[in-house]
Amino acid sequence: MVIVHTAEELQNKVKSKKSSLGLVPTMGALHLGHLSLIKRATDENKQVVVSIYVNPTQFNRTEDLENYPTDLTKDIDLLKPFEKKLILYIPAHEELYPDGIKSKKYDFGSLTAYMEGAQRPGHFDGVATIVEALLEKIRPSKAYFGEKDFQQLQVIKALNQHLALGIEIISCPLIREESGLAYSSRNSLLSLEQKSNALVIHQTLEYLNKNAYDWSVAEMELYFKSKVEAIKDFEVDYFSIAEPSNLIPVKQLDSRKAYRMFVAVFVGKTRLIDTVELVRK
Ligand code: AMP
Questions:
Q1: Where along the chain do its domains lie?
Q2: Does ligand 1 come within 6 angstroms of the Cβ of 145?
Q3: Which pTM value belongs to this model?
Q4: Is ligand 1 within 6 A of the CB of residue 35?
């Protein structure tokens, strides 16, 4: 596996023309969700940079940052099947934050006003700062992001448009365990009991999806809360339904429009997010 720590080393390893360089930014603790992005990137590009960097500025809770899982040995093992095309980039803080670890300020309008933006102050400034730094340094032709973090994806598309570096942002579907639980690095922080109980999140979203356009959003929220909060240590942080284009939560559904449900749930101290596109009848 080619492993580099600086952008300079990285550029020396880029053999292919820039027109076929993919980028998959991650925070490590890799799982099948990440691997689906990496698979797609290696299918579509001659070389792919996978970055592993736990970005401090996107964590609004110190405890969350301190507990964030890392396992580089396992990550490298998981990346082995793709290694011919991969450059694994593991930057130090000084590489991405030469002037100290702080985020820039951005204005993404309604895209960051609700849900993760409202519940995690400063989170998207941190995300945008690090993604901007990675895109600027690596200059890939395509960069891959998951719909698991749908709000983040929309923010990155807006950022990318603003940067105008000629990079294409590729959105990749959310990958779930067979049980329905969305793959997340944070799942490794759950006890076995919490993990099996966490299935309620996706199950309830799917149930709501079957009945979506018959209920008001308030009724759906109440139902979601009643199912999820019936379990010990589970607390709903938010339940929202919004149009993908503006991410403004709505109260009433219009059958002509497409929406997504967005949820965040505390399972003990671990916070999980999930999102499902509403199926129109
Ligand atoms: P993270 O390491 O959590 O920052 O995630 C790195 C990238 O992988 C982001 O673009 C995420 O949206 C994506 N990702 C994480 N989990 C999943 C999943 N279950 N399915 C698809 N993409 C995912």
A1: 2-172, 185-276
A2: yes
A3: 0.97
A4: no
What contacts 24, CB < 8 A, 6 or more positions away? 34, 37, 38, 41, 48, 49, 50, 51, 143, 144
Which pairs from 103-111 meet CB under 8 Å and 24+ separation? 103/57, 103/58, 103/128, 103/129, 104/128, 104/129, 104/132, 106/159, 108/155, 108/158, 108/159, 110/246, 110/247, 110/248, 111/151, 111/154, 111/155, 111/158, 111/246, 111/247
Best residue among 148, 175, 187 to mutate for probing ligand 1's pocket (most ligand atoms within 8 Å of CB) is: 148
CATH class of 2-172: alpha beta
Annotated catalytic residues are 34
How does pLDDT run across 149-188, given as a tens digit for each residue?
999 999 999 999 999 999 999 999 999 999 999 999 999 9
**Each residue of 28-41: pLDDT tens digit?**
999 999 999 999 99
CA distance 117 to 124: 7
The closest residue, in CA terms, to atom 8 on ligand 1 is: 34
Matching CATH number, 185-276, of 1.20.58.1970, 3.60.40.10, 3.40.50.300, 3.30.1300.10: 3.30.1300.10
Phi and psi dihedrals of 52, rounded to 5? -120, 115
